[in-house]
Amino acid sequence: MNLRSLFLLLLSIFLLSCDNDDYPYAKVPSVVRNAFWTQYPDATDAKFIQLDENYEVEFEIDEEDGSAVISPSGNIVKEKREIEWNDLPAEVQETLRKTYGQKKIEDPERVRIGEEIHYQVEVSRFFIDDEIVLTAAGKIDTNLNYWK
User: Fold this and answer.
1) Tell me, what DSSP letter sits at residue 140?
2) pLDDT digits (tens), the chain, 148 positions
3) Helix H segments across the chain?
4) Using alpha carbons only, what angle is made at residue 148 by residues 59 and 122, rounded to the nearest 5 degrees?
5) Paired sense of beta strands 116-123 and 64-70, if any
6) Partners of 122 in the beta sheet?
7) Of 44, 71, 69, 70, which is closest to residue 59 (Cα–Cα)?
8) C-alpha span between 45 and 22 (Å, rounded)
9) How far apart are CA 58 and CA 65, in angstroms?
10) β-bridge mates for residue 77, sequence order
11) Beta partners for 64?
12) How far apart are the two ends of the chain, measured CA to CA in Å?
């Protein structure tokens, strides 16, 4: 094989590896990307997942996990952020303490859907953990599904 053929072979391999699949956000509309980066400029490890028509973004800020669902028009439909026990409202802490005991509570999260704020936690059980959603007033909300 002469030098020219080798050069052409290497050049074609290089060019084939330069497709847009190498860019992780290639299939995410710019409106969605811009809405996310505007709302969460300090986010790292962002992963965009297409749901039916919306996009879910999983990310980290200051080593805390978060997620957001963004519509194709760039509106944030809902978001959740990992929080500490002490960041839960007193009413939520009291309900959880009385009903389950504080030691059994794991992974508290703050969930915002529109303007409403909810809190969700996992309750450690022997075989299966319970997933509980509470209102900001500390009432258990059985109408709202736990967001995994």
Assistant:
1) B
2) 577 777 777 767 776 666 555 566 778 999 999 999 999 999 999 999 999 899 999 999 998 999 999 999 999 999 999 999 999 999 999 999 998 887 788 999 999 999 999 999 998 878 888 899 999 999 999 888 988 8
3) 3-16, 30-39, 90-99
4) 110
5) unpaired
6) 106, 131
7) 44
8) 16
9) 8
10) none
11) 61
12) 56
Angstrom distance (rounded) from CA 68 to CA 76: 7
Beta carbons within 10 angstroms of residue 61's beta carbon: 15
- Tokens coding 22: 């190498």
Place of tokens 């028509």: 53
What residues contact 134, with CB distance under 8 A and at least 6 apart?
A: 92, 95, 96, 118, 119, 120, 121, 140, 141
Residue owning tokens 């997620």? 67
- List the one residue out of 71, 64, 73 whose CA is nearest residue 45: 64
Please state the pTM of the whole predicted model: 0.77
Spatial contact of 109 and 122, defined as CB atoms under 8 Å apart: no
Whole-angstrom distance, CA of residue 80 vs CA of residue 67? 5
